[in-house]
Amino acid sequence: IKRIGVLTSGGDAPGMNAALRAVVRKGIYHGLEVYGISRGYEGLIHGEIQEMTIGSVADIVLRGGTILKTARSEEMRTEEGQQKAIEQLHKLQIDALVVIGGDGSFRGAQTLAARGVQIVGIPGTIDNDIAGTDLTIGFDTATNTVVDAVSKIRDTASSHERTFIVEVMGRNCGNIALQAGLACGAESILVPEIPYDLDEISDKLKRGHQRGKNHSIILVAEGVGSAYKIGEELRARSGFETRITILGHLQRGGNPSALDAVISAAMGGKAIEIILAKESNKMTAYVNQLVVSSPLDAAYGVRRPFNRELYNLANELSI
Ligand code: F6P
Predict the structure, then answer these.
(1) Sequence-ordered list of residues with C-beta below 8 angstroms from that of 50, at least 6 positions apart, any chain
(2) Ligand 1 proximity of 125 Cβ (cutoff 6 Å)
(3) Residue 97 Cα distances to 94, 110, 142, 283, angstroms
(4) From the DSSP assignment, how many helices (H) and strands (E) are in the chain?
(5) I want to staple 192 with a disulfide (CB 3.0 to 4.6 A). Which of 93, 198, 223, 283 is the partner?
């Protein structure tokens, strides 16, 4: 019987549990033994590994977070850590590994692939910053969480006639800000991919004010810089009262949306198919509404294209 391992690594994302459940159940269905590795590469390096059963993934399909726990492993960046990881896999005779995580996690996976481990990555990060897939697990849920939060902020922004600067996650990627900003009609969206001009934004606020608009929401991707600083500069330029909300880690929690739960299950299932087909160095990808196998290398070297058309549209709609 072939034995495989599965771990979740890096920032957690809603849907990771649904992907894990699919890996475990489809793996067992096809006669594989599936081992769950706790706390990402940290748990791999330190041998925190247990066999999973059909029951060990019961009741988790819609639960946020990851029951395997996750970590960002400094040790996995070192030769020594990678060697220890390999030794643990050899000890348990695990010859294939499913890595659910973001690009840092995939980088770790590639070092194991280079040492002969059969590797399949499942893109799991709220940031949606992985090239080669239209969606990563957790992005849709996080975006919905932002939209929900902004609609609440809009209520108080409107009552008090204030400008709110709302900072969202995404690391160096503006996807959450863009999609959420368009969805909730933000007056301005600031993303790291596109330069911005605070004078222009301030003029826009003033124009809106002249038309009787009494409040505004400015969504700022964290990769742009400090929301506090931007708020301060806008207040100085426009004279409008500003407030800052940093949504932070609440964007990473919660039940996965239906879309996230579905793509997570499909990606988990596809990962098992890739393993059974004896392919390695692959990742599951969501392309044109289908979950497919794609080279892990596709996640590297190229920056995920930013949807400038949608960004321009958001600007046009928020004149
Ligand atoms: O990659 C997911 C993410 O939530 C980013 O959006 C954010 O920059 C980072 O992780 C935060 O990491 P941590 O939870 O380690 O503070």
Answers:
(1) 35, 36, 38
(2) yes
(3) 8, 11, 27, 11
(4) 10, 11
(5) 223
165 Cα–ligand 1 center, Å: 19
Ligand 1 pocket mutation, candidates 105, 126, 130, 168, criterion most atoms within 8 A of CB: 126
Query: Which of 316, 273, 290 has its CA nearest to residue 23?
Result: 273
**Of all atoms in ligand 1, which is nearest to the CA of residue 13?**
2
Of 127, 129, 140, 260, which one is the catalytic site residue? 127
β-bridge mates for residue 101, sequence order = 123
Atom index in ligand 1 nearest the CA of residue 129 equals 1
Q: Which residues contact 97 (CB under 8 A, 6 or more apart)?
A: 4, 5, 6, 7, 89, 109, 112, 117, 118, 119, 120
Per-residue pLDDT tens digits for 282-299: 999 999 999 999 999 888
Give which of 181, 148, 168 is closest to 307, Cα–Cα.
181
Helix axes 103-113, 79-91, angle to 10 degrees: 70
Mark whether 155 is an active-site residue: no
| Interval 129-182: pLDDT, tens | 999 999 999 999 999 999 999 999 999 999 999 999 999 999 999 999 999 999
Q: Tell me the two tokens of residue 74.
A: 């400094």
Angle at alpha carbon of residue 176, lines to 170 and 179, rounded to 5°:
160
The response to whether residue 170 sits with its C-beta less than 6 Å from ligand 1 reads yes
